[in-house]
Design a protein that fits this description.
Elements lengths: L4 E5 L10 H15 L7 E4 L3 E5 L5 H8 L7 E8 L3 H15 L5 E8 L8 H15 L4 E2 L6 E7 L4 E4 L3 E2 L11 E5 L5 H11 L3 E8 L6 H15 L5 E7 L1 H10 L2 H23 L3 E3 L12 H8 L6 E2 L7 H10 L3 H4 L6 H4 L11 H8 L5 H9 L2 E5 L15
Parallel strand pairs: 5-6, 5-7, 10-11, 10-13, 11-12, 13-14
Antiparallel strand pairs: 1-3, 1-4, 2-3, 4-8, 4-9, 7-8, 12-15
Helix pairs in contact: 3-4, 7-8, 8-9, 8-14
Length: 402
């Protein structure tokens, strides 16, 4: 079937009121970026839905790209037909025939927004249902669970017909809920936390702590590859790589071993907060999962959070580990995360970290050494990379969208 457009349904965006246009504009931007490699397409955004005019481009490839965009509830390849009953009947028959297999059932789902159209919804059902029954031997009607659901939408300017309803990623368009910094390690959890936060409309920039020579270039490449996977959602993403060796060495020398992880996490959070402030972010995202490791008990979180008033988002906090792994596999980050290259958190982990650290104690231990110059040096020497997916080099006219 030669589809000429793809109909995009908004889902959650449709519940927005006066600020709906802001969300639609963000979604349109996401769609433009995702479809940058299809130069002939045109995008038409309306209050209640969006259309991608195909103009001869590969429909299947376009749909593949659209399915991953947050803010799209569902989409359908469709055809546009003028308001002529004979043309409409032939188009409907052709559409159903292109999908029909022997023994399948169908139904008509009309939507008549243009009340001036000559047929009401009942008339559309009878006219088009009868025509299909006459011209496709063996096909039957099933109004409850059909194999083919022919949707006929009557709008003021034309008729739109579609048979497929393809689920999108849901959520809200990236950037519609502000910006936050993702503390991205090389593990399984933090990329999933970033993904789920992006699904709620948050634009993310990643912060990674790198401790050469204790951590290798391969571990850095691993994190860059994880960032590339997350960048596929929006086309581009900033990755801040923080030199952390001097701070970790100082912690090892100055802080009692069982409190070293708590101090390490506190300083990571302080540095991430400084980068957030410079980048005008509004929150910090972590992959913390309650009780999973010593630094993720409630007592540890309380002691670590003490260094900032910035909101800390923990989308995985109460999730089961198997559920996190499933999402990691679904978004194609799992195989990257399990590469055997350790990050700075695993290299310097103490043998018996404190699971219930006292805030007052960690403050006391940190007071014997002035860490501020080391923290400021790490912030100033942070390397910022702009990450884009390997398979999607963006044309120059899209540079302003990043």
């Amino acid at each position: 079937m030669n589809y000429d457009r793809i109909l995009i349904r908004y889902g959650e965006i449709s519940t927005k009121g006066r600020n709906r246009k802001k969300f639609v504009d963000k979604l349109r931007k996401s769609v433009r970026i995702a479809l940058a490699s299809f130069p002939k397409i045109k995008i038409r955004a309306e209050r209640d839905r969006m259309y991608v005019l195909v103009n001869g481009e590969n429909v299947d490839e376009i749909i593949k790209s659209l399915k991953n965009i947050f803010g799209i509830q569902s989409l359908s390849p469709a055809i546009r037909v003028e308001k002529d009953l004979d043309q409409m009947k032939e188009a409907a028959l052709s559409l159903v025939k292109s999908l029909y297999k022997e023994g399948q059932t169908f139904k008509i789902s009309p939507k008549r927004s243009d009340k001036t159209f000559e047929l009401d919804t009942s008339g559309i059902n009878h006219t088009f249902g009868g025509y299909i029954l006459e011209n496709i031997p063996g096909i039957k009607v099933d109004v409850k669970n059909p194999d083919i659901n022919l949707k006929i939408e009557v709008l003021s300017e034309a008729i739109y017909m579609s048979c497929e309803n393809i689920l999108g990623a849901g959520g809200l368009p990236v950037g519609s809920s502000g910006k936050a910094m993702l503390m991205l390690s090389g593990g399984i959890d933090s990329p999933v936390a970033g993904y789920l936060t992006m699904k709620r409309g948050v634009e993310i920039e990643a912060v990674h702590f790198f401790s050469p020579p204790y951590t290798s270039e391969r571990s850095k490449e691993k994190v860059i590859d994880l960032a590339k996977k997350l960048a596929e959602i929006f086309g581009s993403m900033k990755l801040h790589i923080v030199p952390f060796t001097a701070i970790q060495q100082s912690i090892k020398e100055q802080i009692p071993e069982n409190y070293s992880m708590t101090t390490t996490r506190r300083f990571m959070l302080r540095i991430t907060d400084e980068i957030r402030r410079k980048q005008e972010g509004l929150a910090i995202i972590t992959g913390d999962n309650l009780g999973q490791v010593a630094s993720q008990t409630l007592e540890s979180m309380y002691a670590i959070n003490d260094v900032t008033n910035t909101p800390i988002l923990r989308p995985l906090l109460t999730m089961d580990k198997n559920d996190i792994i499933k999402i990691a596999k679904d978004i194609d980050t799992y195989d990257i995360s399990i590469r055997p290259f350790e990050d700075c958190c695993t290299i310097f982990v103490p043998s018996s970290p404190k699971t219930k650290p006292k805030k007052e104690k960690v403050q006391h231990y940190e007071s014997f050494f002035d860490y501020e110059p080391l923290i400021q040096e790490a912030v100033e020497n942070t390397e910022m990379l702009t990450i884009r997916p390997e398979s999607k080099e963006q044309p120059s006219e899209f540079e302003d969208l990043f």
